[in-house]
Write a structure and sequence with these properties.
Elements: E1 5-9, H1 16-22, H2 25-36, E2 42-46, E3 55-60, E4 63-69, H3 84-93, E5 99-104, H4 116-127, E6 130-132, H5 135-138, H6 149-162, E7 170-173, E8 179-184, H7 189-203, E9 208-213, H8 223-231, E10 235-239, H9 242-251, H10 258-268, E11 284-288, H11 292-297, H12 303-310, E12 316-320, H13 321-328, E13 332-334, E14 340-343, H14 348-357, H15 370-380, E15 388-390
Parallel strand pairs: 1-2, 4-5, 5-6, 8-9, 9-10
Antiparallel strand pairs: 1-3, 3-4, 7-8, 11-12, 13-14, 14-15
Helix pairs in contact: 3-8, 4-6, 4-7, 7-8
Bound molecules: zinc ion (ZN).
Zinc ion binds near residues 320 and 322.
């Protein structure tokens, strides 16, 4: 019977030394044994096409295996996974239905590759149907895939709270229960965004929207990654685009802006009503402090400056729909010290209800930035404080 046949991608064979250092005959034999049950193999190099990273393909008896090999020197979080999305995209777009994809820990791996973040990424990978060929030799705990989207969101939050420095990708739900991913599409974060979308495609029961958060000119994921994500039929990809936001700003007095929501997520963290603590994402809005309609009337600002105010993460709070409405109706007000106040003329059962649902009577210190207070001052210009009483 014909021996399994490797196609070795360009990362491993640009120079002969690379091949000898990174991909020894022992490693190839081990991979071959673990995927096909036999250790002998033939191989060829494939240096066509663009750089697709640390990938080998192994064909045997009509089945095609894709094997992504780990980095050896683990230094930074996301760069350790940079080869994986292109391998995964190649696998997903492969037409042969008899196919499988694996991840292989390189025997020379060094550094801390078992941090909570790495474990989270391994779990996403397993959820995205990537098999691990040698996890038992390298990890203390076996990796379990995520079962639900909620499971992914909860774990992502946990990682974020232990590492507030790297806030890249957010998963939340929109008003119609749709899963929403706000993902950066540049730098190392694009790998996380891609793997996250592929994992969500396996477990989501509802449609998923991916809002691509760019920087400068680069606003989209690599073409192959987009094709792979869309081919699974679950995730719809949207660009976040200043031109569209600008048109929306000029034509409407309420701004349903991807960029604004993303900036609120960055500034305030996950959706949680600032007045009552409600965390049901479907009913939490991004509420402008200085309202869009008022910004537009300001004659001292240029059009671009107005848009910047409308999209500023400091110009907003997460509020549940009740509290958003109460704020916009000026029944509730926030003063410059961050105290929540109610219109003194409200009385009786309405006041009892207001006090009952408004559990947070003082905004957190972390919210009260100079810019935030500046927006409060603009908002309150026409609301006399003497007409209000403090809720607490
Ligand atoms: Zn609320």
């Amino acid at each position: 019977m014909k021996a399994p046949h490797f196609t070795i991608k360009n990362k491993f064979q640009k120079q002969d030394t690379l091949y000898r250092d990174l991909l020894t005959p022992e490693i190839l034999s081990d991979i071959c044994l673990k995927t096909t049950g036999r250790p002998d193999y033939t191989y060829e190099f494939d240096d066509t096409g663009y750089n697709i990273g640390r990938l080998v393909e192994l064909e045997h008896q009509g089945k095609k295996n894709f094997i992504s090999i780990s980095e050896t020197d683990i230094r930074s979080r996301n760069s350790s996974f940079q080869s994986l999305p292109s391998a995964l995209a190649r696998y997903i777009l492969e037409e042969n239905p008899n196919k499988e994809i694996f991840f292989y820990f390189h025997p020379s791996i060094s550094g801390n590759y078992e941090t909570p973040y790495f474990i989270f990424m391994y779990r996403l990978m397993k959820t995205a149907k990537i098999g691990f060929l040698n996890e038992a030799e390298y990890l203390e705990q076996p990796i379990s895939p995520f079962i639900t989207a909620e499971d992914i969101i909860a774990n992502k939050d946990r990682i974020r709270s232990t590492n507030r420095g790297n806030r890249s990708t957010y998963v939340t739900r929109g008003q119609n229960n749709e899963l929403q991913v706000y993902g950066k599409t540049y730098g190392a974060n694009k790998y996380e965004t891609t793997i996250l979308c592929l994992a969500l495609s396996e477990v989501a029961h509802s449609k998923v929207q991916l809002f691509q958060i760019g920087e400068g000119g680069l606003t989209e994921l690599p073409q192959k990654a987009k094709e792979a994500i869309e081919s699974l039929g679950v995730v719809k990809i949207y660009a976040s685009n200043r031109t569209i936001e600008k048109i929306d700003f000029e034509e409407n007095n309420s701004l349903r802006s991807v960029e604004y929501v993303y900036k609120l997520l960055e500034t305030l963290g996950d959706k949680k009503c600032a007045f009552c603590g409600c965390e049901i994402p479907q009913i939490i809005d991004g509420a402008h402090i200085w309202p869009v309609a008022e910004i537009k009337k300001d004659e001292t600002l240029s059009q671009d400056e107005k848009l910047a105010c409308a999209l500023d993460g400091a110009n907003g709070l997460w509020l549940c729909q009740n509290h958003h409405k109460l704020l916009d109706s000026n029944i509730l007000r926030v003063n410059e010290a961050g105290e929540v106040q109610y219109k003194s003329e409200i009385g009786g059962i309405h006041l009892i209800f207001l006090k009952y649902i408004t559990r947070q009577t003082q905004l957190q210190e972390s919210v009260l930035s100079d810019r935030f207070i500046n927006y409060i001052q603009k908002r309150n210009r026409n609301l006399r404080e003497s007409l209000y009483s403090t809720v607490g």
